[in-house]
TrEMBL record:
Protein name: Transcription termination factor FttA
Species the sequence originates in: Halorubrum distributum JCM 9100
GO biological process, one term: DNA-templated transcription termination
Similarity annotation: Belongs to the metallo-beta-lactamase superfamily. RNA-metabolizing metallo-beta-lactamase-like family. FttA subfamily.
Protein keywords: DNA-binding, Endonuclease, Exonuclease, Hydrolase, Metal-binding, Nuclease, RNA-binding, Transcription, Transcription regulation, Transcription termination, Zinc
Region (KHb): 73-140
EC category name: hydrolase
Record PANTHER family: CLEAVAGE AND POLYADENYLATION SPECIFICITY FACTOR, CLEAVAGE AND POLYADENYLATION SPECIFICITY FACTOR FAMILY MEMBER
Entry cofactors: Zn(2+)
Source taxonomy: Archaea, Methanobacteriati, Methanobacteriota, Stenosarchaea group, Halobacteria
Domain annotation Beta-Casp: ranges: 423-548
Every Metallo-beta-lactamase domain range: 194-418
């Protein structure tokens, strides 16, 4: 009998000692980080609302109780009884019964009403039918991504359970080493923006944090081949952590499965869905540009299948000696500051990922409240001494001014934006400005993946700012459903029609003008001197967006917009830069993030910024707060303890 089997036997005995004698436990298994308890008496478990909480506290495990198949009422009868328990105004759109696990997945427009106060309705469902309810939200805007991911995971449930059981046994294996040390190895995004990747290692465990590409630099990927990374074999990784879905952090995560990785990805649920959307588009753009994609869609599906979603604030075992907690990063939907508690109080490391410290229209500001952090790995995109962004209110006024001026001269406003985050922020500004009469009402055309990304935002309103979440819950107040928003879905003909038409606003991907439909808009509207191209997001060095921002007016458009490869275009439209909409904290926000941490970290590694930015921020934190700071290069290893 293995050590894990002995551990499960012991846990089963402890559970049986804690529960009433008339409750039978038939099996106890690990599924990922959770301990799953199977019982013939799910109704009795549900009858005591505190029983699971008491068990979780005593055993220090996340516990899920599932019914033994013998305890289940037939799905047809159970469906009628479940619908009787749930209030009609919850808007149940689907019930899906899974007899292998005893779970019923309830899709509803208002999940909170299915859950009930402190889970009371969920417990009532189990008391009535024995099934364990799992609740998901019906997207207010139909999302093919959400639908496809849910359908795929439903079809792969059996294999996914096998994966979770294997991961669970790996997490709870016996520790083999008496040594105590922690190392961080930088594989990318040091003294540069993009290709984020780090290895966090202990004598027991190797964890990869992020695995992205570098915008504007084809072929520059993280240093995965080194011994600390995949050079030791992808199968030697214990876990992958994804802080958020932007491609400079997520693009190459599916590649790991091509190289033989078969372990878990820990991220938030919206990041999982957005990763699927963005990486599939990444493959599509590569193919259209005549480049060989680094992996295939099959690897994207593997990544989704191996993802274990976590919620903000949940403390989760991801290895025998590592606990992980996600916190809101305020950057994009589902973005997370990742906090690692290593060993039995041995060491604590936090990776900021990309953060925005102040509240925005979309998100509450980044969380920096941790029990302990000895080392902080901090993004420095706007860490330069002069990187102070315009106040958001002033930025919005500047954008409205450009729109009004362009409208008066009969032109169009074209805004290149990331599909995820900045586009939705701009949509909220425009919706309110038109509603308040601050800019004329006109069509706002959304091109690329923006509409699909917006649909995903509305699927997960609990990750959005409090007041926005409340508006989305009320369909007639959902700002993303405003009449002026038009999804471009007919391709080139529709773009030409818009270009030939009246004044309007176009928001299009890609945000750094590195391919995508924005190239078509430049071809169609670029020659119009009455129109304006408005930059609202960061333009990395080497990207076409940065070059245009710096004054280029002769640009390559290749085959986009119906032209031929090798075509160039002279831009006659004006260009404007409106700061303040970035999803990144500026220099002051980064300093405030560190200054208000209590206790402050002993060491800070400044990463994910141009060379001058990371060095400026590192120097300032050292001088102002007397902490040890570093601006590492790629392929450096830091050893702690």
């Amino acid at each position: 009998m293995s050590q894990v089997d002995k551990q499960l036997d012991t846990l089963k005995s402890e559970i049986e000692q804690e529960i009433p004698n008339d409750i039978t436990v038939t099996d106890v298994k690990y599924e990922g980080p959770e301990l799953v308890v199977y019982t013939r008496d799910p109704k009795r478990f549900a009858g005591d609302g505190d029983l699971i909480r008491r068990l979780a506290s005593k055993l220090r495990k996340r516990i899920t109780v599932r019914p033994d198949p013998s305890a289940l009422s037939p799905p047809a009868r159970a469906e009628d009884e479940v619908r009787e328990v749930i209030p009609e105004e919850a808007g149940v759109t689907d019930l899906d019964f899974h007899e292998d696990t005893g779970e019923v997945v309830i899709e509803a427009e208002k999940p909170g009403m299915v859950i009930g106060r402190r889970g009371s309705t969920l417990r009532e469902i189990t008391q009535e039918v024995g099934w364990t309810p799992e609740v998901v939200r019906t997207p207010p805007i139909e999302s093919s991504t959400v639908s496809n991911v849910r359908g795929f995971l439903k079809n792969e449930r059996e294999e996914r359970r096998d994966i979770l059981e294997r991961v669970g046994r790996q997490i709870h294996r016996e520790e083999m080493s008496d040594d105590e040390w922690v190392r961080i190895t930088t594989l990318g995004c040091c003294r540069e923006v993009g290709r984020a990747a780090f290895i966090l290692s202990t004598p027991e465990t190797r964890i990869l944090i992020d695995c992205g590409d570098k915008p504007g630099a084809e072929g520059e990927v993280p240093y995965l081949q080194v011994p600390e990374a995949l050079g030791a074999g992808a199968a030697t990784l214990d876990a992958v952590i994804l802080t958020h879905a932007h491609l400079d952090h997520s693009a190459l995560v599916p590649l790991l499965y091509k190289y033989g990785y078969d372990g878990p990805i820990y991220t938030t649920e919206p990041t999982r869905d957005l990763m699927g959307l963005l990486t599939l588009d990444y493959l599509d753009v590569a193919a259209k540009d005549g480049r060989t994609p680094p992996y295939e869609s099959a690897q994207v599906r593997e990544a989704i299948k191996h993802t274990i979603p976590l919620e903000y604030g949940d403390v989760t075992d991801v290895a025998p000696d590592v606990k992980l907690t996600f916190h809101n990063a305020g950057h994009i939907l589902g973005s997370a500051v990742t906090h690692f508690h290593i060993g039995d109080g041995l060491y604590n490391v936090a990776f900021s990922g990309d953060i925005h410290y102040e509240d925005t229209r979309l998100f509450n500001g980044a969380v920096n409240d941790f029990p302990r952090v000895e080392t902080l790995v901090l993004e420095s995109t706007y860490g330069g001494r002069n990187d102070y962004q315009t106040d958001q209110e002033d930025s919005e006024e500047a954008l409205k001014e450009v729109i009004n001026e362009t409208y008066e001269q009969g032109g169009k406003v074209v805004i290149p934006a990331f599909a995820v985050g900045r586009s939705q922020e701009i949509m909220l500004v425009l919706e309110e400005a038109m509603r308040e009469g601050e800019i004329p009402e006109m069509p706002v055309h959304l091109d690329g993946m923006i509409w699909e990304a917006t649909a995903i935002h509305t699927t997960y309103p609990e990750y959005l700012r409090d007041d926005l979440r409340d508006r989305i819950f009320h369909e007639d107040e959902n700002p993303f459903l405003a009449d002026q928003f038009n999804h471009i879905d007919a391709g080139e003909d529709e773009r030409q029609e818009v270009a030939d038409g009246d004044e309007c606003i176009v928001i299009s991907t890609s945000g750094m003008i590195e391919g995508g439909p924005i190239m078509s808009w430049l071809r169609h509207i670029g020659p119009d001197p009455d129109s304006n191209l408005v930059f609202v997001g960061y333009q990395a060095q080497g990207t076409l967006g940065r070059r245009i921002q710096n004054g280029w007016d002769e640009i390559p458009v290749d085959g986009w917009g119906g032209g031929s490869r090798g075509d160039t275009l002279t831009l006659e439209m004006g260009t404007e830069v409106v700061d303040g909409f970035s999803g990144h904290a500026d220099r002051q926000g980064l300093e405030n993030f560190v200054k208000t941490m209590n206790p402050r970290p002993e060491k800070v590694l400044c990463v994910h910024g141009d060379e001058s930015s990371v060095q400026d921020l590192s120097s300032a934190l050292y001088h102002d707060y007397n902490m040890r700071t570093f601006a590492p290069k790629n392929l450096e290893t830091f050893r702690f303890k």
